[in-house]
Amino acid sequence: MTKKALLSVSDKTGLLEFARQLIDLDFEVISTGGTKKALEKGGLTVTGVEDVTGFPEMLDGRVKTLHPKIHGGLLAKRDNPDHMAQLREADISPIDLVVVNLYPFKETIEKSETTQAEAIEQIDIGGPSMLRAAAKNFADVLTIVDPADYASVVSFLEAEQNDLAFKKELATKVFQHTAAYDALIANYLTDDAFPEKLTLTYEKQQSLRYGENSHQTAAFYRHPIPAKLSIITKQLHGKELSFNNLKDANAALNMVSEFLEPCVVAMKHMNPCGVGIADNIEQAWNEAYESDPMSIFGGIVAVNREIDVATAQKMHKIFLEIVIAPSFSKEALEILGRKKNIRLLQADLSHADAADRFETIAVSGGLLIQETDRQVEEAETFTVVTKQQPTAEQLKALQFGQHVVKFVKSNAVVVTTATKTLGVGMGQPNRIDATKIAIQKAMPKEGYEAAILASDAFFPMDDCVEYAAQHNIKVIVQPGGSIHDKDSIAMADKYGIAMVTTGVRHFRH
Questions:
Q1: Which of 477, 486, 469, 467 has the alpha carbon at shortest distance from 505?
Q2: pLDDT > 90? residue 470
Q3: Percent helix, strand and coil across the chain, each rounded to 5?
Q4: I want to staple 13 with a disulfide (CB 3.0 to 4.6 A). Which of 92, 147, 174, 468 is the partner?
Q5: Which phi and psi (to 5°) does residue 320 adopt?
Q6: Which of 204, 211, 218 is nearest to 176 (CA)?
Q7: What angle separates helix 431-442 from helix 463-470, to the nearest 10 degrees?
Q8: Where residue 160 falls among pLDDT bands split at 50, 70, 90?
Q9: What would the pLDDT profile of 99-149 be if each residue is shown by its tens digit?
């Protein structure tokens, strides 16, 4: 008995040759609409679906394959005599192979001008139904959703194999594909930031050599429609990025994108070790480098302006894992490209306001999702809570420090000038230790006499303020909100420190 193959695809890559090979293997090819026209144009004889169903397409093509003569032929179990008897009684022929890929919903919604009505017309109904039916019955039906599998399917058929594992692998790919397709539609249509059923889908970007450590396996998955500001960047030079490279690079990119003035961010282990702003990118590099010349070694650097020759020459003098920039001058790219192990990434920072709105964190047994912390406090929103008032220059430093500290792992304290970090105390289980680390790192640096101290959360006790005062810190910014605020304020007044509160906490765990 002639075997039957049903082909209905939007992606016609390799389709004609595959259909020709199926016909050579004694398959009758059944097809629909545009697929049928493409195959006939290629000189093949094709049976229309309407000739199988005895029913024409209707509702502008919304109904084509939703018919018992299609789904009965897909779902009947060949080793079940009752199923096969029912097919004979209904004059339904078994369908042995299905090739379907779905309406281009993703490609449609990626276009900014697409209306919701246009998107809805690209929601495939018959395609997923056929795929799911065939994949459910994978013991008897080969189901192909990816043109990349055509060659292996032909080899399988030519060898007349009956490898259930191969059929199951194809079926699994189908359910992954339809699940991702449905998730994309659900996320497009929902207006609820936190729906009762959260359906996420990602596409594999690459396998990674290892995870955080060499004994951990890992892979990198990307959102099917990445935000315009994304770590899915253009790599201009260097070997593949590692798991830790990607995390650090993402953190550096997110941080530098929030600064309007020329800015350089150096990142190590998800924490900024040097941040500098200036009138030009070379000077911003100088500020970031001088923040911590030791820790920047082997770090990830992100900048928000084109890298010029002068900056590239300075970067070339030390070992850097990654440099991210919106662009590199031709000469700068040549200079940095001389270093074999550096990775150079080009990222579009013009869409900083289009970064991911939400971030997800995996936990045992589930997933946490929250709105990304994109809030930035301006100096005019600060509340002065001490007798001593900050100067205009100190307010600039306070604003810079407040902006930096929200990217530091809690407990976090930073000591900065108005243009660069001097000391960063991060990830400590108590705030006094974070304060001591930041100040001890800052004290030897040039500019410490004008330094301010910023804390990501309130001071639970007045010990941090006292320690800062004893080490010549004159100005502090912190959220406020502790039941002991009055003690910290009194300690600041005792030492003549100017303290402002923001009312906004920036924990980063």
A1: 477
A2: yes
A3: 40, 20, 40
A4: 147
A5: -125, 140
A6: 204
A7: 10
A8: confident
A9: 998 888 888 888 888 899 998 888 888 889 889 999 999 999 999 999 999
| Lookup: tokens for 333 | 């790219």
Residues 6 or more apart whose Cβ sits within 8 Å of residue 432? 461, 463, 464, 467
Identity of the amino acid at 207: S
Among the residue ranges 154-168, 431-445, 450-464, the one predicted with the least confidence is 154-168
How far apart are alpha carbons 288 and 404 in whole angstroms?
12
Would you mind telling me the total number of residues written for the chain in this entry? 509
Question: 350 or 330: whose pLDDT is higher?
Answer: 330
Nearest residue to 295 (alpha-carbon basis) of 403, 445, 476, 478:
445
Q: Is the dihedral of CA 138, 140, 146, 151 positive or negative?
A: positive
Catalytic pick among 3, 12, 83, 136:
136
DSSP letter string, 70-116: HHHHHH--TT-HHHHHHHHHTT-----EEEEE---HHHHHTSTT--H
pTM for this entry = 0.82
Q: Which of 223, 237, 269, 339 is catalytic?
A: 269
Query: If pLDDT is split at 50, 70 and 90, which confidence band does 1 have?
Result: low
Closest CA to 94 of 171, 27, 18: 27
Q: Decide if 269 is catalytic.
A: yes
Q: 242, exposed or middle or buried, with CB in 10 Å at 0-12, 13-18, 19+? A: buried
SS3 assignment, position 407? coil
**Peptide bond connecting 411 to the previous residue in cis, omega within 30 degrees of 0:** yes
- Greatest extent of the chain over all pairs of C-alpha atoms, in Å: 97
Distances (CA, A) of 68 to 9, 51, 53, 93, 146: 20, 13, 8, 11, 25
In this prediction, what percent of the chain has a pLDDT beyond 90? 61
Q: Which of 508, 509, 455, 506 is nearest to 485 (CA)?
A: 455
